[in-house]
Design a protein that fits this description.
15 helices, 11 strands, two-stranded parallel ribbon, single chain, seven-stranded mixed sheet, elongated, alpha+beta
């Protein structure tokens, strides 16, 4: 008799095909779901190749949060050698029973290969996780073609949440927590922040996105992903964005509903994320170089003509061919202009970028 894996399962039906829901101990996941498709042509695989750079991030998520981590179910196809034995032939018990899978059966992961690899790595560092479990949905496989179609169907309608919504719901990332705090406590951000979308439609009554506040404040405080934020840094961020808000009169007008956000987007570059991000970059150096009077120096921003019609100032920086651009190069060239306005010397890499920009202007003349 062949050695088998035996799981208590629930049986269901989708599109006329049986499937089984099991709870699989984490220690069994690496043994049950083998992954060895490197070098196999895509047309002969049932899934994407393993992106090994994703594994440490997922594994660290489990390791650092052993009492909080959450995983969705792994979806897998098994050969028709799998045998289901119900607890009873009638009634509700007919869909509850045992699924027997020979240890040498072919099992293909349709969704979850990165979770499987991360679980294997996490258990090496935290063996106590071995007895935790993960839900597994088993389908009886009808060959490679069916498995490939399952992969396509499972991923076709999968939509990642927007970055703003992810920040709104993330209670673990210190910067996400700070971004939500700023959204509530900075007057110009309050009531003008789009919490769900990463981009703002032309007619939206919002002026900022939560993801934009996150990114700009990350630049302001020069924080890497997951780094802690002190109370002093939290207060500094609130003060900085409050002062900036008071320095750009149109932002205050939008906050008081004296002007529509749509008209600001149409007429001014400061109503777009490229400037918010650039303000964070310039603000970091402003506070570092002038810790005692950075608030006063910010008043120089009032001298800027923020109008999109001023193409001589903004074309090639916040705009490309008359359209707002948030490309990295445009963000940094916009930050260069803000630094010049605030009297902040450029760093070597910024000066190099500025020279190239000025040379390109000369070539166009």
């Amino acid at each position: 008799m062949k050695p088998i894996y035996k799981f208590p399962v629930l049986r269901g039906v989708q599109a006329g095909r049986e499937y089984y829901l099991a709870m699989c101990p984490l220690k069994l996941v690496p043994k049950l779901f083998l992954y060895d498709e490197e070098g196999v042509p895509p047309e002969l695989r049932a899934q994407r190749t393993l992106n090994k750079s994703r594994i440490p991030e997922i594994a660290n998520y489990i390791i650092k949060h052993p009492n909080e981590y959450v995983f969705s179910a792994i979806t897998a196809s098994i050969s028709e050698e799998g045998v289901f034995t119900p607890l009873d032939e009638t009634g509700d018990a007919r869909n509850v029973g045992w699924l027997e899978i020979p240890m040498d059966a072919t099992i293909i992961i349709n969704d979850g290969q990165h979770r499987r690899a991360a679980i294997e790595e996490a258990i090496k560092e935290r063996p106590e996780l071995a007895d935790d479990s993960i839900a597994v949905v088993f389908f009886i496989d009808a060959g490679l073609k069916r498995s490939q179609q399952m992969f396509a169907d499972l991923n076709k309608h999968a939509v990642r949440p927007s970055r703003s919504l992810g920040i709104l719901y993330d209670h673990r990332d210190p910067m996400a927590i700070l971004a939500r705090h700023l959204m509530i406590n900075v007057p110009v951000f309050k009531n003008l922040t789009e919490k769900e979308k990463t981009s703002i439609s032309n007619r939206s009554p919002k002026l900022f996105t939560l993801s934009g506040i996150y990114q700009a404040t990350q630049a302001l405080l020069q924080k890497g992903k997951g780094e802690d934020i002190t109370n002093d840094e939290k207060k500094l961020a609130v003060e900085f964005w409050t002062v900036v808000g008071n320095t750009i009169p149109e932002w205050g007008m939008a906050s008081r509903k004296e002007v529509s956000c749509a008209s600001l987007r149409e007429g001014y570059v400061h109503a777009h994320g490229v400037v918010l991000h650039a303000l964070g970059i310039a603000g970091a150096d402003l506070i570092y170089q002038f810790p005692e009077d950075w608030q006063t120096r910010l008043q120089a921003l009032k001298n800027l003509d923020w109008s999109r019609e001023n193409s001589a100032l903004w074309e090639g920086r916040a705009m490309l061919q008359g359209r707002i651009s948030k490309a990295s190069r445009q963000v940094h060239l916009t930050a260069n202009l803000l630094k010049h306005t605030l009297g902040i010397p450029l760093r070597a890499d910024e000066a190099k970028l500025e020279r190239k920009y000025m040379e390109s202007l000369k070539e166009q003349q």
